[in-house]
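Hey, resending since the last one bounced:
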Amino acid sequence: MKLNARRLCPDTLPIHGRRAFLQQSANGFGSLALGALLSQWASSSALQAAEAAKKYVSPTAPKAPQFTARAKRVIFLFMEGGPSHIDTFDWKPELAKLGASGKSRPLAPVFPFRPQGKNGLMMADGLFPHLAGHADELCLLNGVTTKTPSHHQGIVSLHTGSENFVRPSLGSWVTYGLGTESEDLPGFITIDPISHNGGAQNYGSAFLPATFQGTRLGSGSGGVPNIRNNHMLGDDQRRQLDFVQQMNRKLLAQTPGQAELEGVIESSELAFRMQSSVPQTFDTSDEPQHIRDLYGIDDGTTERFGQACLMARRLAEKGVRFIQLTSAGWDHHNNLRSGLQGRWDAIDRPIAGLISDLKQRGLLKDTLILWGGEFGRSTADDKGDGDGRGHQAKGFTMWMAGAGVKGGFRHGATDELGGAAVEGKMNMHDLHATILHLLGLDHEALTYRYAGRDFRLTETGGVVAREILA
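The structure tokens again:
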């Protein structure tokens, strides 16, 4: 039967046609009713979600420092294994006179020293030709100490302030205290961290909310892979996430203060935003050739650490609060001369490039760079072959550069043979207190209540090294 184009009325249809019409109409009425209910539910839910979102404040939102800050961010260059202070930044002429091969006998510095920069900082000659050109930016800390000359305890203590207990890392405390200025990247990123000697504890948040723990990334093969979700369009992902977050925020509004739930909300939002920000931030192919040359990215020796240093600069530009880079292989019980030369060849140009790049972009003035390992090396010949040193915890060297510290300056000293700090001593709590101070944070006031008491990074100690402040 051929129907004309006029509107059909039930009375004009056959019995079986009217029955079908009513059945279809009933389904349509149900759909209309369901649609209206869904619309009301969506509207109500949207209002609830909006209200919850208004009340919700991200725990990683930027926070004002407690007093005027000299630095906005930290780049920590961690040298795992314990670099020899005696052969790099702590000149000991008396040791050079006494040095002779033989197990447990004094071992002379394996490189000559010469003054560098306008202020004549004594540094190993020829070991780091690029970094030596920035001697006037360096603040040498020659009196650093730690409790135990053991890699595990020393590394964990350097990162958390405690060698025996699980505690939040320095980067986590900094992010907890100041939040982050980056909207689409984590506030704390660690590049190529070690998996041993504390492993994730060195960048973990312990009892602080998980939101403040470090995010681990690698520097090999151009950084991190593209993390986009190829199975769902961005708009669909956003609607799906909004639905889940609506319920999360509603639950949080009903029972506020749930750190775990806050972590879920933040990590979900951050993961969504990182799909676009991470590939863009870590794709260094758009950097001009002179920048690649500055970091040594196209040189096989310096490529990996150069890539990490360039990532650090890009992360600093994006507002990431705490950035850590790790260089392993500094435990020189033997092959001291060739080992030190090899490690410095890999990092010298990249670090100098990082300092130059930050400076020319106006970022060095509010970026604190920290360099060093978990301890130093002994004055004695460790193996008796004249080419190795043991562990040294009583005095060693770290250095700072950038925001708020005196450049071309030496603070502290070890004894005439480099065996123990005798001036300007800085233990791990002192070091952490000074870093927090440069960031505008009072290490005694930055606390978190856990298990019935207030914890802080520096526990019951810590003295700010005000002598190094510019």
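Confidence is low (pLDDT under 50) at residues 1-15, 17-34, 221-227.

Sorry for the duplicate.
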